[in-house]
Amino acid sequence: MAVEPVKKIRVISHASLQEEVLEALQAAGTVHVERLSGTELLPPKEYSDEEQQSLRTCTFRISQAEFILSYLKAYGYDKRSFFRTIVKDKYPMTLEEFVRAHERVDLDRAYAECSEYERHLVEIDEKKTALEQEREELSNWTELQLDMDEIACKHMYCLLPLRVPVADLEAFGQALASEVIESTLDVVSERGSRAYCMVVYHLDSLGLVEEILTRLRVEKVTLPDVKLEPAERMEQVDREIAALERQREGLLARGQVYAGKRGDIEVLREYLLNQKRKLEALEQFGMTRSTVVVEGWVTEGEMEPTLENLEALSEEIGLEVIEADHEDSPPVSLRNGRFARPFELLVGLYGTPNRREYDPTWLVAVSFIVFFGFCIGDVGYGLVLVAACLLARRFLPLGEKVRNLLLVISYGSLFAMVIGALTGSWFGIDPASLPPLLETMAVFDPLRDPIPVMLLTMALGLAHMLSGTVVEFRDNVKEGNWVDALIDQGLVFLFFICLGVAIPLALAEVVPTSTAVLIGCAPIALMLLLLGRSAKSVPGKVINGVYETYNTVVGWMGDTISYLRLYALGLATFVIGWVVNTLAGMTLGIGPVIGVLLMLLILVVGQTFNVAINLLGAFVHPLRLEFVEFFGKFYEDGGQRFDALKYESKIVMIREEDA
Amino acid sequence: MLAAVQVSKEITQAATWGGLTGFQWAIFGAATAFIGGGMGSAIGITYVSNVASGILVEDPDKFGSMLPLLAIPGTQGIYGLITAILVTIFFNLSELSGFSGLLVFFACLPVAFVCCVSAIYQGLTAASAAGMVARRTEELGKAMVLPALVETYAVFSLILTIYLFTRIPK
Amino acid sequence: MMDVEPDLTRAMKTFRRVPKYGHAVGRVMVHESTLLNRQRMERLLEFPFEESLAVLMETEYGRYLEGAKVASDVEEGLLEFLRDQYGLLDDICKGTFVPRFMRLKYDFHNLKVLLKRRYTDGAVEDLFSGLGSIDVHRMKESFEASHAGDLPPEWEKLMLTLKEALQPGGNPQEVDSTVDRLFLEERLAVAKRERSRFLVDFSRACIDVANLKIILRGRMLEKEKGYYDAALASGGRLDRRELIQLALDTQERLTARLLATRYGRMLEDVLKTDSEEAGLTSLDRGFEEYLLEKLSGMKRMALGPERIIRYIITRENEVALLRITLMGKLHGLAPRVIQERLSPAFLKGVV
């Protein structure tokens, strides 16, 4: 249960074996590749033209695959159910199958065809939009019985289609009649507030007409230049739109082939991403004239198999194992027992610990389980959650992270059952109507006598934070900072010890209250003296001392009170369950069949809602207690995560060959 | 002196205070607590869901990770509900004196106001946190802690209200 | 003082605008993650053209620059990319004036190009089609007919003002400054219609900055009152009439007054240096820094139009940087030379 020790490894091989070494490293998945020697000792590898080319090809093919996948999505083939948006498709396969992913899809062809389809679809959409616009304009002119190619200036007379606001129509007509001789105005149709008219005028009057149009803000309309009447043209447009629709559907149908291959393409993309990661790892390689040198970190536990693996490759490979010295900053790999391992996920959410930091995973594990238990705090809900998590783990295709998360929740839910029994909470049923056996198990009554539970949560909080302080004390001692350890953490311990002595003494009236207060506050005087030591000047030390003391005392008080949320959240679970039950009970009186049905409905929906909403709270709030109150006391992140070169993917699950 | 004590006793034990009975005051308080919490949660959730809807249009795969953020500002409404129900469980309403009823009403106010305001601000914080998740889904853990910090005071208000209930003469 | 609101109303606005822009902000948040980061930009600099394209393949630009060989491919691709970005803006900000606000600069750019063509024959610069809110052809038609015609109603007044301001035989310089002024004023009007405090503040800061630039330049060229009348925009925080007076006043009084304004800190270097040349360069830099500060201040409010505008401006900058980088590579410039050209362009999109 600690940060796992790692050792340096150096692999030296002939340049011609580079590909094999790389392959073996990725397949083994145990080496965190990093160039450790300085540039002067070991010149960094430069990509050869060939390698450049393959990296480029790889990148290009990834973007091809991405394009195809996004095209398929836009297609409407990716209509996923609500459930599938959360649980993504997973593709279990052996490593061998994964490496051969490209054999199942012809990516170039797929890309060429899909981009062709996409281009056509865009074209069709553009044409369709244009036609629809035309149709809309034409619909205003259906009453016009004139071939539209006649609308032009011919034989000294011009025909001009116009759109005029109905309100301005009269003014426009008068203006035309009075100013332009030999002109006529025909109103073809009125649609809403616009009138659609045809004006006929003599070519000589062109300027006059234009002037009137500008003055009265009348818009000219352009109609298509075809030898058809508007109504006929409209029918034609309708036919054309229908034809486009058919073309579109045809295209979509042709793309169906690839929609069926979506899984293969996704796997291929994952493979290519891994391929690219491998090529990029080359950057960390070192190179001499005819050899390549790989350096990296291996955890102690994986050292043996890694060496064996590499030695098996060829006899020409030189292997060296080097102890890490003080100047190195090795990556951090956490190693925990089976119980605590899933909780590394929670620590990881905050950040990988600094490599000198104590690995707090087991502390987080224990406290998180307790806090989670308090927040759910019900036997029935705990049972349901445990069952649901274990079933999901068993039957759903889930990634490693989610599986761990489910395990974390099941541990917490088990403890929730304990808390539920102690507080008499069974599916939120009113304690008064519980069987006597269950009722006697309930030691606490959070509803009518909340103070004991509140005190309990605060006590747990204190214990939690004190354990964090112990860790910091240990870290300081280990670093040789005895002064910091004794003052910063020691005084906190002293403070609580004094409080622990003073309060019972005062309560038992062994000493007068004033003496008890003196005992309790003695460490505060020490804090005032010592906590300000980091400031340079004497007044600075005094001010800093007061400030730090205030921060420490008030901070501890505030943080302790913060743990009361556990009580509030637990109570919330119970009260809502209780309300649901009461509501359900009331419906029972309605009628024999409907009443029971309604009751069941309310129970199922209500209790599910209650579990869901409180699960969220039971996860977020304990996490906050860990991150803010607990980690605040000691934790330093900023470690480099141990990130071995390996085959990895969120959706492709590589299983052992023999499985 | 003695007279004053007697007068105050008369006031505290009278069936009505300011024209309302203890029952009426208590119900008034319960309703106020829920109105505050519920309104705040409704507004807060509107904020996050507005932003989340935008994120989901661009990236529908994020639905799973948006869901917890959407639900976070909902807790204040639940606290309001709990307060309202506790009023009915804790006190024997029909026998509550006018003055005690008034105290119940006052004790409900922390939840009513603090939950309302904190839910709204939590909505804003959660909306910003959604931005973190939009960029990197792995940030979800950190993104959820931020709004949880805002909620602290809603939790405190609930605790205070419950504590005050225990101090009110029944 | 129309925009002074009671504090409470202002506080409530914070809440009211979330539902208005929330959806858009959410969508922008996702797109923000596709912005090029610094490392990528630096990697781009070092590679030759072909490989830069390969690097860009992994980004949003991939589809637009695929197979680009010559300068015009790059130009066309980047323009198309920007057009699509503005399409996105229209889409996410439906029902607000934000797209208008952002597109306005392209409309006025187009207008300027058209005007220049009239005054100096032939093509001066290309029109940005598809980026402005008004179709280039429609603008051209209306422009040639000298009336607003199909253009939105507020352009009618604008055209009129333009016609008045531009007597035949006027010089192109003045045409430019008049159009610039009209642009700033029109943008402020759009911002006011959107009722966004941020947009209004931003437009005003731009007006002030532009006005100050005009005054300081104008004094070096010893311009008359008529010049300032035509060029100074109204609506900024600094009163226009006062600025005109100041412009014609003594150097001491001008310096004293300007240093006392909110722009004092930024103007300090400019006003105290003796060399005119140095003064002008530090003037430009000072203004750019000021507006940049204004922009980075947007980060604070996560859910207003700030975030959307910051995104678009960052994109525009990015496109400008890419254009310079890729063009430089096509012309065989060394990475160091390109880098030198980049720094001033960083802020090109800001104003």
Descriptive overview:
- The complex is a heterotrimer of chains A (659), B (170) and C (351).
- Chain A is an alpha+beta fold.
- Chain A is 62% helix and 10% strand.
- In chain A, strand 5 and strand 6 (157-165) form a beta hairpin.
- In chain A, helix 12 (361-376) packs antiparallel against helix 21 (592-634), helix 16 (450-478) runs parallel beside helix 21 and helix 17 (482-507) runs antiparallel to helix 18 (513-530).
- Chain A is extended, with a radius of gyration of 39 Å.
- The two termini of chain A are 29 Å apart.
- Chain B has a single domain (26-167), classed as lithium bound rotor ring of v- atpase (Four Helix Bundle (Hemerythrin (Met), subunit A)), CATH 1.20.120.
- Chain B has helices at 2-13, 22-58, 63-71, 75-90, 98-135, 140-167, and strands at residues 16-17, 20-21.
- Chain B starts with a helix and ends with a helix.
- With 351 residues, chain C is mainly α.
- The two termini of chain C are 25 Å apart.
- Residues 1-6 and 347-351 of chain C have low confidence and may be disordered.
- Chain A binds chain B through residues 80, 85-86, 88, 346, 349-350, 447-448, 450-451, 454, 561-562, 564-565, 567-569, 571-572, 575-576, 578-579, 613, 616-617, 619-621, 623-624, 627-628, and chain B through 60-61, 63-64, 68, 71-72, 74-75, 78-79, 81-82, 85-86, 89-90, 140-142, 144-145, 148-149, 151-152, 155-156, 158-159, 162-163, 166.
